[in-house]
Amino acid sequence: VLWVVLLNGCAGTTPEPPIAPDRARLIVTPKAEPKQGWRDPKTDSAYTGTAQIGQGKQFETVDYESLDEIVVWVEPAIPVPQELTEITIDLARPDATLRVAPAGVVWFVKGGSAYLRTEDGRVMNLASSSRPTVHGYVEVMAESNPDPVARLYVTATRFAQVGQANQKMVFDGLPPGAAKAVAWHPRLPGGQTSVELEAGKSTSATVTVGVNSLPKAR
Amino acid sequence: MVLLPCLAAAPASQPAGVTVSGKVSLPGEGTMPEMIVYLESTSPGAQFDVPADAEISQKGARFAPSPLVICVGQTVIFKNDEARPIEHNVFSRSPTQQFDLGLYRPPEGRSVTFTSPGLVRLYCSIHRYMDGIIYVCPNRFWANVEKDGSYAIEGVPPGQWRVRTWQIQPRYEEQDVAVRTGDAPVTVNLPLTRK
Question: What is the reported pLDDT for B15?
Fold first, then answer.
């Protein structure tokens, strides 16, 4: 217990790296919000006696406390040039972990031919080296594999990360001024928030994903 | 075959008209994707009957049938038919139509009338593995593509159309061919490609 307390204490006092005087830092905490008024199956008597709740079971619930695969990106009002980076997709090593890819970066495909498909159903072949003009959620597929060999979220900005609910994401090197933090999730509606960033300073913000923002229908 | 259940949403009887049929072909070896062929009218002011309401079950935290193919103007009843008093929350964040049906328990059903064509992904905000698909066609003129690639859309009235495809798991570019129907059957073959 003492070690845990000490470790937590140390973690809490770790000094943040310095911020460049002409740049700004934004710390975004994504939140995942369950439907207002829902009953947790863990305590709902409707599930009493069924073995079908819990991890991997038929009635497994969405874990809002640590919801993963939340993509967060920051859109500064002043455009920032993309960095000349690249991503590599190795067909021999399928990896379904969701990654972010800033638009315009070079995609290298190793180990065979592949194609991509977007969330809205566009399909296109991928050369061994290309700069696909796509945005949003993309699956990279190989003919021989019914499951995606890679999953990417293509953002218009290089300030993008994938994380889970309630875990802070730090974005450094942002231009001071107005900016927008946006969140996306594979199944829950995303959210966004506006912030004003100051040079040499750190700003905090939260963005929420969840169903409560959707139009109600009956 | 996954598509078979969605035939339940097709109209029980077709009015007189011609058949638009043909064959979907692949660029190489491989199995035919699970897909439909549908018609989009380009005749000005064309209006068509809308089939009866469709229903989607939620029993066992599963949407069934899924995928379900319907058409614009059609209503889907999302019935909570769980054996236990388990609540569900059906929602869609798809650009085609966004909605949140709220929390409800059996035997209640809540409905949505779909007003735009396109793909609608369904989820439950409570249950992690509960997801489904509705594809909203512009009208009731659509057909499943068989494993050999053949399809036939019956009872098509005279007019101008675009013959289009939709794949559940897209592997090729969707096809879009203009045709005109009159008194005689029309054949439209659709070679799938990917650039």
Answer: 57
Residue B173 in contact with partner chain A when CB distance is under 8 A: yes
Collect all residues with Cβ–Cβ distance below 8 Å to A4 and sequence separation of at least 6. Answer: none
Cα B52 to chain centroid distance, Å, stands at 14
ipTM score assigned to the predicted complex: 0.87
Set of chain A residues whose Cβ sits within 8 Å of the Cβ of B80: none
Q: Which one has a higher pLDDT value, B82 or A12?
A: B82
Question: B36, B93, B167: which to substitute to probe chain A, counting the most A Cβ within 10 Å?
Answer: B93
Q: Contacts of residue B121 in chain A, CB cutoff 8 Å?
A: 187
What DSSP element (H or E) covers A150? strand A145-155
| B103–A121 C-beta distance less than 8 A | no
The closest of A112, A101, A90 to A152, measured between CA atoms, is: A101
Is the Cβ–Cβ distance between A165 and A66 less than 8 Å?
Answer: yes
Highest mean pLDDT among A143-157, A192-206, B7-21: A192-206
pLDDT tens digits, residue range B29-50?
889 999 999 999 999 999 999 9
pTM of the model: 0.90
Confidence of residue A26 (pLDDT cuts 50, 70, 90): very high
Residues of A in contact with B89 (CB under 8 A): 35, 38, 211
- In sequence order, the 6+-apart residues with CB closer than 8 A to the CB of A170 are A25, A26, A27
Give yes or no for B75 touching A (CB within 8 A): no
Question: How many other CB atoms are there within 10 angstroms of residue A111's CB atom?
Answer: 13
The yes-or-no verdict on residue A8 having pLDDT over 60 is no
Shortest Cα–Cα distance, B18 to chain A (Å)? 30
Q: How far is CA B138 from CA A132, B21, B41, B48, in A?
A: 30, 18, 8, 10
Chain A residues closer than 8 Å to B60 by CB: 58
- Phi, psi values for residue B69, rounded to 5°: -105, 125
Q: Which residue has the tokens 């566009």?
A: A122
